[in-house]
Amino acid sequence: MATPRVKLVERLVAEAGPKAIELEDLGDGWPSRVRVRVTTGWQPVDLYISGVGSHNRKQYEYRFQNPPEKSKRPIITSPGALPVLLGYSEEWGRPVCVAADVQRRLGSDHRFSVLFVVALLKAAAQRGWSEYHTTSDEVIVGFQPSLLPAFVEMMSGGIAVRERQIVDAITNAGLSQDDGEQTRERARAAASRVVVDARFRRDVMKAYAGECALCGLDWDMIEAAHIYPVTAPKSVDRVWNGLALCGNHHSLFDRHKIYVEPGSLAVQLHPDLLNPPNEACQVFVERTLEQLVVPAKDALQPKDQMFTQRYEWFGGAYAWVA
Ligand SMILES: [Zn+2]
Description:
Blueprint: H1 5-16, E1 21-25, E2 32-38, E3 41-51, E4 53-54, E5 61-65, E6 82-89, E7 96-100, E8 113-117, H2 118-127, E9 129-133, E10 139-143, H3 148-157, H4 163-172, H5 181-207, E11 222-226, E12 242-246, H6 247-254, E13 258-260, E14 267-269, H7 279-287, H8 304-314
Parallel strand pairs: 3-6
Antiparallel strand pairs: 1-2, 2-3, 4-5, 5-8, 6-7, 7-10, 9-10, 11-12, 13-14
Helix pairs in contact: 3-5, 4-5
Bound molecules: zinc ion.
């Protein structure tokens, strides 16, 4: 007898912990309404959940399914909530969620199976996060329940993040050695950070058309820099606190060798840069624009206040500014 869907939701919520998920309306598990903690607040989510079982024809293959066709329970989008389609398994030592692409299955009441290999479950239980690419180009993601916020953040922002980046972040947070509450919380924050960084980078690149704001360089060698840094209190990951910069300008900006005047956006270079030691450095200095190039849209332009806060935060590092 399969575990009822509501029991799976209750276990998932308990496993994830109150800092990651809050139950709003248990319903019957198809869906249940929860609120998931994302970096901007609590995101309402409709969880469509099923138990994961082995597909008896092929032992290495696992699956979960929607309710039978006759019950007519399609996945729908409710206003203000994000639908999330999940399998849930406790078979591999640690609980694992398996998320499938909900968009492909919206509105359909045909019976479907989401199929994946057992390696996905094992890797997610062991490392915390794993991906499986199906032959029909679907990415199925397995993760421990406390990482649901990072998955929801990815979905709601339409962000693709490489598996390796998330695994590195949560491994550094200590998740593979220990899954105590503090470690899970640290891993959740680290995974969400990876997603937010990817979204920030995508949005900044788009606003600046992929060109360095200080020299116009393109060729996919551009990075997203925070003006008021991410390590400072109340820093925000919005385009108006970002700059698209080439690696060289980013490095000099981070080392406080470049000053952008709030308001006029005039660029001042540190005295060290005004005596280039060789021709290559001289060309680089000459190529640096005298005024920052910013997006045409007002709402995307860097806010003066972000520069002011930066200079206050780093204090004496900008004492050279004339
Ligand atoms: Zn540049």
